[in-house]
């Protein structure tokens, strides 16, 4: 968790997208692996079970055919028929040998191979005896051939049939076992895909919520702190520590609050000093005014007081300069914070655009899949309509056949004059039968097409469900980006408000600095006036009045500054 917290916001978003991509790749890998296992099982079932069964069935059928041909040769003395039967025997025996060789080339269990060797040996003996029987039959020695068939060939034939039966039963049991394994493999593959999908969804949602919490929680905390600062509470401090942009924003916020605290303390202290100095200056001016007739006696004391006043004003000027410098630094820090938040807002907007693009693609896929569902539904409807049309054609063909039969009957009743009409009626009946046959074939094809269409529609509907799940995940990610962007958008006005307050503080500081400069000028003039003992009493009184006015203005500015400072909590 600490490692994720220290990642940049962009890296966190990339991590979330990477986990989602890995989950999709894992799902694809498991699905492909499951399909591969199913294909291997199907190949095994075909090559090691179904194909041997076909070969054994072919051998059994050919043996029966050969025995039937031999018996027919023994029952007929027609030379041409015997020649035809002999050719058919060659064809069937060659096919049996081909089937046997194919079985020998297959990788079969050891027990089956032993039985197969026995079968091939018996078949060779059987072929030798068959050849003798065929030669006798070709010479029309049917009685001798039948005796050889019954005494020597029949026991081998019975033994071969029993052996073929055992092989077929053994292969059937093995096929059932392999089929069970195929079913088990398919169920395992299905369970693996389901588990993978569930894990991918759980991991993606969990990581997404964790990353969203890492982003939104500290932003909400900073937002709350900015609200307190906006109300003048500068005692707050953010406690979120991380190396990401939000952690840097929190550290900058703490530095800004600390800097503002120092500035406010300094301004408060300086304003108190300025107020005290202004009061002292005002008291001195009043005393100087009331004692203007004794100015010659108190000139030296006034010079000392004026010098002290100039020094105090210089110190105040230096303090105000420091306040102005520190306020400018706070202003700069505020601009940095504003720039950082705007950059975070921009990155959040870019992430939201990417999620919107993914959402548009998912919506396009969903629209396409739904269009496929509609198209297949229309295809199914058209197939049913074709079936109805074929049914009508079949009924018409049946009625035409019935009319042709009736026409043939009427032509037969008409005798010699109805023969031509009978030929036409027979042709019409044949065409009606061919139409009915073609209609049945088309009906079967339409039924097969409709079945395939229904299966395809089911697959497309399943795909629609997967697309809807993908759209749900994308909507969740989009909502998370929206929440991030909303929080950042709320933070920007808060920072702008702080920036405005700091600008106001900087303006007030400049005004104080200007007032103190004026006071400094007045104090300098006062010092010069007190040193010029030769000046008239009226000029001295006017100078004291100016000092009184300036000191009152300074006191008023000091009070205003203290009132402004009291609004802040430090």
Portion in helices: over 70%
Strand segment count: 0
Whole-number average pLDDT? 71
- Estimate the global geometry from the Cα principal axes: elongated
Which topology of the domain at 21-201 does CATH recognise?
Four Helix Bundle (Hemerythrin (Met), subunit A)
Output the radius of gyration.
54 Å
CATH class of the domain at 21-201: Mainly Alpha
> Would you identify the CATH architecture of the domain at 21-201?
Up-down Bundle
Give the low-pLDDT segments.
none
**What percentage of amino acids are in beta strands?**
under 5%
Query: Which structural class best describes the helix and strand composition?
Result: mainly alpha
**How many angstroms does the end-to-end distance come to?**
35 Å
Largest sheet: none
The helix-strand sequence is: HHHHHHHHH
Helix count equals: 9
Question: Can you describe what's shown?
Answer:
Belongs to the methyl-accepting chemotaxis (MCP) protein family. Pfam families: 4HB_MCP_1, HAMP, MCPsignal. It is found in: Cell membrane. GO terms for molecular function: transmembrane signaling receptor activity. One of its GO terms (cellular component) is plasma membrane. The protein is mostly helical. Among the domains are: about 20-200, Four Helix Bundle (Hemerythrin (Met), subunit A), CATH 1.20.120; about 265-365 and about 490-565, Helix Hairpins (Orthogonal Bundle). The chain is about 90% helix and about 0% strand. The chain contains 9 helices and no strands. The protein has helices at about 1-5, 10-75, 80-105, 110-140, 140-230, 245-290, 300-415, 420-530, 535-565. Helix 2 (about 10-75) packs antiparallel against helix 3, helix 5 runs parallel beside helix 8 and helix 6 packs antiparallel against helix 7 (about 300-415). The longest helix has about 120 residues, at about 300-415. The chain is elongated and about 180 Å long.
